[in-house]
Specification:
This protein is 65% helix and 4% strand. The chain is mainly α.
Length: 477
């Protein structure tokens, strides 16, 4: 359909898997699974619910009559009750006991937690694959010297691989936070209208242990360790904030990475993947814009800003619940997952297919290396040639100022080394000079740090998650 608005996250960016997770089919079939879990738990705790009723419910988990549900909702103006009626029509034997003792948040909130858990699992799979791709990139380029930058001004050299470990470390921190949230996610359970379980105390004739057991049974049936210990009608909306904070963190890391790639693309040191017939600009046919990295930044900005929705929703809840969370959550939570899914897919695509241009990197390094090498030259000439440190320092200062002037005023090559080579005060052979300006001698422990970080920190985590490696990503546009 092209005559109504379509969310671009669905039409252009997010994966089929993530879109399916937040689909109506998954949402409402999960509602039905929760109603079945409730009925089973109530039966196990002694309520008069039959196996036939539960069996009929299980036969109709997925055949949802959306037209009937829409008709009921137009009449009752309540989405949960509309689906209670629709489920009852499909499973008439169970109609009297569907949703027994529960309030709307039993299906709504528990489904939200379940989908956030499953969404985090999908995100983790992408995150692991992004980490693996970055680790391979860092390993491959651990020895390749490159200019490092502070304030985007040339600074002491690093290696391409060592720089990649900075991107990698950000993602590893994100993985830690994701794992923490996964480990601590709890179902709401079945707490009733204000969280007191009063309706279940009535159903179970005041038996407190059965009320407690009901929650645990539901958690077990839905694949969770436990339910929240206390709540109002809803789980605390801080949970949404904490989950979206993980996604925001990934978006922040991806933005840092993609901004660096955009800058390196400008320097012509790297190119992100570019298809054979891809057009970089409608006007300038020669252009190869880093559009995938730019898209990462664009989507990441949305996710980072979206976190504010969860923060404001958390602060806006009155007492045991208000409904001003509902419409916002329907947008903010799924869209955060859809956008993060797209961000990580792009991240994997870019780092896996990125081209590195060592000769351009070497050229830029050589343009700045004479200035960086001047201190090494000074020390060598004092130590090995018996030179006067103060005389040599002044000579280097004068040559450096003159060389910088030639570069900035006239665009000429850096001639500092030529001046030093010609000056008998330094008494250097060409061989000595080339040894002193070898780029590999300026990168410190870059290669060793990269190797150790990959071996000690990254590879063990990848081994732990080896079954999640190899996420297949597709970039649509």
């Amino acid at each position: 359909m092209h005559d109504i608005y379509e969310n671009p996250l669905c039409g252009r960016y997010a994966s089929e898997e993530m879109k399916h997770l937040f689909s109506d089919d998954v949402k409402f079939s999960t509602w039905r699974k929760l109603w079945i879990a409730l009925a089973e738990a109530e039966k196990e705790l002694g309520l008069n619910i039959t196996d036939e009723q539960i069996a009929q419910m299980k036969e109709h988990i997925h055949d949802i009559d959306y037209e009937s549900a829409a008709a009921h909702e137009r009449e009752v103006r309540h989405d949960v009750m509309a689906h209670v009626h629709t489920f009852g029509e499909a499973a008439p034997l169970a109609k009297p006991i569907i949703h027994l003792g529960a309030t709307s948040c039993y299906v709504g909130d528990n489904t939200d937690v379940i989908r956030m858990r499953d969404g985090l699992l999908l995100i983790r799979k992408l995150l692991i694959s992004a980490i693996a791709a970055l680790a391979d990139f860092a390993e491959k380029h651990k020895d390749l010297p490159t200019l490092a930058y502070t304030h985007f001004q040339a600074a002491q050299p690093t290696t391409v691989g060592k720089r990649a470990t900075l991107w990698l470390n950000d993602l590893m921190l994100d993985l830690q936070q994701l794992e923490f949230q996964l480990d601590n996610l709890k179902l709401l359970g079945c707490k009733g209208t204000t969280g007191t379980q009063a309706s279940f105390m009535e159903l179970f004739d005041g038996d407190e242990e059965k009320c407690r057991a009901l929650d645990q049974k539901i958690a077990d049936k839905m694949g969770f360790a436990s339910c929240v210990p206390v709540s109002g009608q809803t789980y605390s909306r801080k949970v949404d904030f904490q989950v979206l904070a993980v996604l925001s963190g990934i978006a922040q890391s991806a933005t840092k990475f993609s901004n660096d790639i955009r800058l390196l693309s400008h320097e012509k040191e790297v190119d992100e993947p570019f298809e054979t017939k891809q057009i970089g600009s409608s006007a300038m046919a020669y252009k190869r814009n880093p559009m995938r990295s730019e898209r990462i930044c664009s989507l990441a900005r949305y996710v980072i800003c979206d976190l504010q929705n969860a923060a404001m929703t958390t602060t806006g809840q009155w007492f045991e619940r208000t409904l001003d969370d509902s419409a916002n959550k329907r947008l903010s939570v799924p869209e955060a997952f859809l956008a993060t899914d797209a961000i990580l897919s792009l991240y994997i695509n870019v780092i896996s297919g990125m081209r590195v241009y060592p000769e351009v990197i070497r050229k830029h390094l050589n343009e700045e290396l004479p200035f960086m090498a001047s201190e090494n030259i000074l020390m060598y000439c004092v130590r090995e040639k018996g030179g006067d440190r103060q005389e040599l320092h002044e000579a280097i200062r004068q040559y450096s100022v003159a060389a910088a002037q030639e570069i900035k005023m006239y665009g000429r090559p850096n001639n500092l080394l030529d001046q030093i080579r010609k000056d008998p005060l330094f008494d250097l052979t060409e061989e000595e000079l080339q040894t002193l300006i070898d780029p590999a001698t300026f990168t410190g422990m870059s290669a060793q740090q990269t190797e150790k970080y990959l071996a000690d920190v990254v590879r063990p985590v990848l081994e732990q998650h080896r079954d999640e490696l190899g996420a297949k990503v597709e970039i649509k546009v």
